[in-house]
Amino acid sequence: MGTNNRGVSELDSPLARLMLLNQFKIMSLLDSANRESYCYYMDILTEGIQNKYPHVTEMISRDEVTMDVSGEVDLILEIFNKVERSMGQLSEEVQDELSAGYHVHFNGFDSGSNVEHHHFTYCNFLNRHGEIDIQKREGNTYNLSLHHYRQMILNHKSYEYMDLLSVDEIRGVCIEKGQEMEMLRPKNLNITDVGGLNTLQVVKESCLGVKE
Q1: 68 to each of 118, 137, 198, how far by Cα in Å?
Q2: Which of 39, 73, 144, 199 is the most exposed place for a label (fewest CB within 10 A)?
Q3: Mean pLDDT calculated for residue range 63-80
């Protein structure tokens, strides 16, 4: 009952309904796959069907994508854009060699991951509005995770002011194929407890805030 009342109160104002109606009109033109849903919401707003207002408000995300997340996604896309532009300057033979040995194309984010959900949401938004200027290659044997992308950000730090990358620099930035799982495994360091002569295992933490 509380949720229904909140949905109604949020759309009490005719101005609020009008603004939302205009937004749905624009979205119906941009997103043809979901046009029928948008028309349903527009009909609710136009006719003023109060008991259906919660259907309209519930579809609007309350879980915001932060500036930190969008900035990180923008940087990841920028790196892949630079890699692809650099690849375009190389011979087909060298391009094939790099593609076979390294993840040189963006794989997207995992929509089902709690860690990557907001990254996926923002990336999907950019994709819907044609704001991603890179290729997305499907069908790779292993999709990169946010952990891998963050490692690429660290690798790219030395080259961030360069417009294009050399072959060796591309290798230095991108994740080598076959090493994906190795990067996700905890790295145990054996430390001897001098007092008790016992061996202690410590899981090394990376500077990215995730366990290596």
Answers
A1: 10, 26, 43
A2: 199
A3: 92
The H-or-E segment that residue 201 falls in is: strand 198-203
Answer whether residue 25 is part of any domain.
yes
Write down which residue in 35, 58, 81 finishes a domain. Answer: 58
Which of 69, 144, 131, 163 has its CA nearest to residue 104? 144
Specify whether 95 is located in the same domain as 37.
no
In this structure, is the dihedral angle defined by the CA atoms of residues 22, 27, 32 and 38, taken in order, positive or negative? negative
Helix (H, G, I), strand (E, B) or coil at 120: helix
Helix, strand, coil percentages for the chain (3-state, nearest 5) = 55, 10, 35
Token pair in block for residue 112? 């089902």
Check whether 199 has a pLDDT greater than 60: no
pLDDT of 86 > 70? The answer is: yes
Q: Which amino acid is at 88?
A: G
pLDDT of residue 58: 76
Instruction: Judge whether 134 and 126 are in contact, CB under 8 Å.
Output: no
Number of domains in the chain: 2
Residue 17 to residue 9: CA distance in whole angstroms: 11
